[in-house]
Amino acid sequence: MLGVRFFKENLISISVLSIILGLSGCVTIKNGIAMSEDHSRALSGERTKMGQSYNLNANCTVATIAKIKLVQAPAHGSVDFVKENIFPNYRDGIRDKCNSRKSLGVSEYYTSKSGYFGRDMYKVRVSYGEGTIKDVTVNINVIKN
Q1: Which is nearest to 136 in space by CA: 2, 26, 7?
Q2: 81 SS3 class
Q3: What is the rounded CA–CA span in Å between residue 29 and residue 10?
Q4: Are 55 and 14 in contact (CB under 8 A)?
Q5: Which residues make Cβ contacts (< 8 Å) with residue 69, sequence separation at least 6?
Q6: What is the pLDDT along the chain (145 residues), one digit of tens a residue?
Q7: Which residues face 136 on adjacent strands?
Q8: 48-84 burial, b if ≥16 CB within 10 A, otherwise e?
Q9: How crowded is the C-beta side of 120, counted as CA atoms within 13 Å?
Q10: What is the C-alpha to C-alpha distance for residues 80 and 33, in angstroms, rounded to an integer?
Q11: Are the C-beta atoms of residues 140 and 117 closer than 8 Å to each other?
Q12: Using an 8 Å Cβ cutoff, are 136 and 23 in contact?
């Protein structure tokens, strides 16, 4: 199994992080797809970083760039995915050293409609090209500016 060997040899860790006041929920597996829920806050009408995805080798080089697909759009705003340099947040003892420098990844930004406040949500599917797929439901509490 070439994919498993590549994964083990390069010590690849797949991470989808919820940041900016976010709390990650439990991860479950359904039909081979990891599923999780995140809970975040955003200011009404302001672009807010909801999360980031990265996949680095043990030597901190980029293993793959995440492909992120919007499965369900938010009812009260929009979501943008931006390839940019980001700080990873590994806690595996192997790639912790990578956390001190930026690496290419994908950031996820949410912007509510101007003046809207209340609950919103969207769903994304993240894949890394080596077989790992994760569906994430992002629940957002949009607060007044």
Answers
A1: 26
A2: strand
A3: 24
A4: yes
A5: 124, 125, 127
A6: 444 333 334 443 333 333 323 334 577 877 777 788 999 999 999 999 999 999 999 999 999 999 999 999 999 999 999 999 999 999 999 999 999 999 999 999 999 999 999 999 999 999 987 778 899 999 999 999 8
A7: 36, 124
A8: bbbbbbbbbbbeeeebbebebeeeeebebbebebeee
A9: 25
A10: 23
A11: no
A12: no
Alpha carbon 108 to its chain centroid, in Å, reads: 7
pTM listed for this prediction: 0.77
Residue whose structure tokens are 């993240």: 126
3-state secondary structure of 109: strand
**For residue 100, what is the DSSP state?**
G
What is d(CA 39, CA 7) in angstroms, rounded to the nearest whole number? 30
